[in-house]
Amino acid sequence: MKRHSIPLLLAALVIGLAGCNTVGGAGKDVSSAGKAVTGAAKDVKEDIKN
Q: Which of 9, 14, 22, 27 qualifies as a FRET site for 38, CA 20 to 30 Å off?
């Protein structure tokens, strides 16, 4: 039993770390998209004022 638990634990650790990187990357993508939308909104607002 003990012999099987160590590889399973290591596999779970690797999958967990990969998941963290995926979520972190998705967060950066969403942040970049939000900044682009904010910039576009500011441009439109300035165009309306002029």
A: 22
Distance between CA atoms of residues 9 and 39, nearest Å: 45
Q: What is the pLDDT of residues 2-44, one digit of tens each?
A: 677 888 888 888 887 777 777 778 888 889 999 999 999 998 8
Tokens of 4: 């099987």
**pTM of the model as a whole:** 0.55
DSSP one-letter string for 3-24:
HHHHHHHHHHHHHHHHHHHHHH
